[in-house]
Amino acid sequence: MSESWKRWQDWATVVLGVLLFVTPFAFGAALGSVVAWTAYVGGVLLVIAGLWSLSTPGAQFAEWAEVVIGVLLFIAPWVLGFSVLTAMAWSAWVAGILAVVLAGSVLLAHRGRQAMAV
User: Strand, helix or coil at 3?
Assistant: First the structure.
């Protein structure tokens, strides 16, 4: 319990989710468009996964969920057809990559601790 709410990677994921959520407002994307909904849903999912990971640092499922969300965000501009909207596409790509890197660093650190314990 002493480790909960302390991992900087999880806090960074929460901030990343909030930033992704506000990007449609910052870049002027139409509120009901696919690109806006991608940012809203992706941002909310990153915030939820980050808070979940913060509250239960031993549960690796939250970190794997962040990896999946990151991969989905990265491929969303091509799959959903907004790769030509440069600012919004780049925000999805960057958020996706950062989510995978942040969650991956926690998973690799956890794996390293398990290997050292054995």
Answer: coil
